[in-house]
Design a protein that fits this description.
Number of strands: 20
Distance between the termini: 58 Å
Helix content: 25-40%
């Protein structure tokens, strides 16, 4: 064996490469995910320790019990029909102390434990585990993912360790939430908590959060004002994600959030969201994401944008995302169309790399507005302006793409509705901007010129690497059943796909012409 392989740091790097969790490289279907790592571990005694550390770093409770305890201890029952079949573990005899010997051998290596995978239940054996589980098992556990259903949540106490720094679980009842008080006492080192249970809000969650002093990452359904103020004073918090926010008191306390980098809201109301952000001043966020499921007016969006200007640091913000999950339709008035001047407030965030704003009924943009806005965001990689219901005809034209080519050299993904019925003349004299980063263009439901080749020629000239054009009908079947209701949109989709199909040939012809020109010059 080469002497370098006797260096444990090198052996550990090899294990990292073979561990699919670390290397993010999963094997092909049918191949055991840890086959190569297991073979490496069995090669010699030098590799055994580091290899076993990787193999057992993450474990499910079900596998730990069934693979490490005697085979005559359990039976596996398959319940239900094939499409809803559930695997249930059943105890065949009492658990003896000696049954835990092999578990004790591997348990010190386990840092991440999870329970509650879909289609599997340990309900029948939790009572037996509660009286037989060794007290000092899993002494090095750092992360616990606890997702059993129903009354099984109460058995989380069996696996709480003072070493835990991360925990993830779902709540669905007050009886389950009432256990949180003891959880904070038993796991004071928690830095990362994730609590699911959409639609269930409990004051126990806020009280639980207030007891923790070194949190770095929090994802919970909601928090009351006291819990939010507690988090804002922590010198460690970097990420906060909520489903919604409460309505704050008439005189809210200003919240610092000194090192908060990521903030997200998945289904808030607009007014409490604005109320919360009004208590922030220059928070050094990098990532801001919010998705509204109630339709938001242009006036409300105007308020949100202006509050964001004072709430977030202008130099640090890199991602600004506003999603729309509402059911907008043609019956909603034009006040839901977002005017271009509302976007000016965001020009102060000059280091944005991703800007995504979904508007229920579209944007009132034109080429002049685009040319005025885009220079403020030279670092953009992603710019998405999707529309939920296409009731507003776009006023931007293909000519506005010159602004993106000129001012956003790193832009790779663009979503914008365009009027492509008129194709600008290509002028290759000095000053023509050719941008080589854009890979995909989503043009929503943009009207298109009959001259498909002219459109493809223009797009390929401005964006030579562009290969993918998508539309609002991109992810639908677009079959005969859809034609009656969406016929015009489907036909438009297929016409844009014809333009997409022309792009490689147009680019190849342009490259050949360039090479011929260079040959003649020689």
């Amino acid at each position: 064996m080469h002497h370098c392989l006797k260096i444990l740091e090198i052996v550990d790097l090899i294990c990292d490469h073979l561990d699919p969790h670390v290397a993010c490289k999963w094997p092909t279907l049918g191949q055991p995910p840890f086959r190569d790592l297991a073979r490496f571990t069995r090669t010699c005694s030098t590799f055994q320790g580091p290899g076993l550390d990787h193999l057992w770093r993450r474990a499910s409770l079900e596998n730990l019990l069934t693979l490490c305890m005697p085979a005559d201890l359990w039976a596996v029952d398959l319940m239900g029909e094939s499409w809803t079949r559930e695997k249930k573990l059943r105890l065949l005899r009492p658990i003896r102390t000696s049954d835990w010997n092999r578990v004790r051998l591997y348990a010190p290596r386990i840092q991440i434990l999870w329970c509650g995978s879909a289609g599997s239940s340990l309900s029948n054996i939790f009572p037996a585990l509660s009286v037989s589980l060794p007290e000092r098992l899993l002494q090095n556990l750092q992360r616990l993912v606890w997702k059993p259903t129903g009354e099984d949540f109460q058995y989380i106490h069996l696996f709480l360790r003072h070493t835990l720094t991360e925990i993830s679980f779902d709540l669905a009842s007050d009886s389950a939430a009432s256990l949180l008080a003891s959880l904070a006492e038993r796991c004071p080192k928690l830095t990362d908590i994730s609590i699911g249970g959409y639609g269930y809000n409990s004051p126990f969650v806020s009280e639980f959060v207030r007891q923790l002093r070194c949190l770095k990452k929090v994802a919970v359904p909601t928090l009351n004002q006291d819990a939010l103020e507690h988090l804002s004073q922590l010198p460690t918090l970097r990420s906060l994600h909520l489903h919604n926010v409460p309505t704050l008191s008439a005189v809210p306390v200003m919240q610092n959030f000194r090192i908060l980098r990521s903030f997200g809201l998945s289904s808030p109301e607009i007014r409490p969201t604005v109320g919360l952000l009004q208590t922030w001043r220059a928070v050094p966020l990098i990532d801001f994401r919010v998705t509204f499921y109630d339709i938001v007016t242009a006036a409300e969006m105007h308020t949100l944008f202006n509050v964001a200007v004072t709430a977030f640091s202008h130099s640090s913000l890199g991602t600004f995302y506003i999603g729309d999950g509402s059911d907008a339709d043609e019956h909603h008035p034009p006040m839901h169309v977002l005017p271009h001047h509302e976007l000016r407030a965001l020009q102060c965030f000059t280091n944005l790399t991703s800007l995504s704003i979904a508007s229920p009924l579209g944007f009132d943009l034109d080429d002049t507005a685009v040319s005025a806005l885009v220079p403020s965001w030279p670092r953009l990689v992603t710019l998405l302006l999707p529309v939920h219901f296409h009731a507003h005809a776009p006023r931007t034209t293909l000519a506005c793409l010159h602004s993106f080519a000129r001012h956003c050299p790193g832009l790779r993904h663009l979503t914008i509705a365009l009027d492509a019925t008129t194709v600008p003349t290509l002028d290759f004299r000095a000053g023509f901007a050719r941008q080589r980063s854009l890979l995909d263009l989503d043009i929503e439901q943009s009207p298109l010129s009959i001259a498909h080749l002219s459109v493809a020629r223009f797009l390929s000239a401005v964006f030579p690497r562009l290969r993918e054009i998508s539309t609002a009908r991109e992810h639908y079947n677009n079959d005969e059943d859809d034609m009656e209701e969406h016929g015009d949109a489907i036909r438009l989709h297929f016409r844009w796909k014809e333009v997409e199909a022309m792009l490689p040939d147009v680019a190849a012809i342009r490259q050949e012409a360039r090479m011929l020109g260079e040959g003649e010059n020689e």
